[in-house]
C-alpha cells in the first residue's frame, strides 16, 4: 500500500490489517518534499512527486505478504 500523505495525523492511524501489514506501507510526503519546496516550479514539483511515488512502489513490490 502506498500512502501519499497529505496530513500529519495520517501517520498515527492504525493501518487496516493491523501491525502485520506495517511493512507494506510506504509514506510519501509529497506536500512537504515537493509542493512546498518547489512552489516556484510546479512542473518540477509534479515530476519529483511522480518519482517519489514510483520509488515507494518499487520498494514495496519486492516484499512478500506475511503468512498467517
Structure overview:
It is a single chain. The chain is mainly α. The chain has helices spanning 30-35, 42-61; strands spanning 2-4, 26-28. It starts with a strand and ends in a 7-residue tail after the last helix. It has two helices and two strands, in the order ββαα. A two-stranded parallel ribbon has the order 1-2. It has one domain.
Topology:
Blueprint: E1 2-4, E2 26-28, H1 30-35, H2 42-61
Parallel strand pairs: 1-2
Give the number of domains: 1
Strand content: 5-15%
DSSP summary, beta strand count: 2
Across the major sheet, the strand order is: 1-2
| Mean pLDDT across all amino acids | 74
Low-confidence segments, given as residue ranges, are none
Taking the alpha carbons of the first and last residues, their distance comes to 18 Å
Structural class: mainly alpha
Radius of gyration, rounded? Answer: 14 Å
State the helicity in percent bands.
25-40%
Q: Report the major sheet.
A: 2 strands, parallel
Query: How many helices?
Result: 2
What is the H/E string? Answer: EEHH
Note the overall shape: elongated
Amino acid at each position: 500500500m502506498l500512502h501519499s500523505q497529505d496530513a500529519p495525523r495520517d501517520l498515527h492511524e492504525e493501518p487496516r490489517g493491523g501491525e502485520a501489514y506495517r511493512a507494506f506501507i510506504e509514506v510519501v510526503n509529497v506536500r512537504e518534499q515537493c509542493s512546498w519546496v518547489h512552489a516556484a516550479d510546479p512542473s518540477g514539483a509534479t515530476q519529483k512527486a511522480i518519482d517519489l511515488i514510483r520509488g515507494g512502489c518499487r520498494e514495496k513490490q519486492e516484499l512478500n505478504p506475511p503468512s498467517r
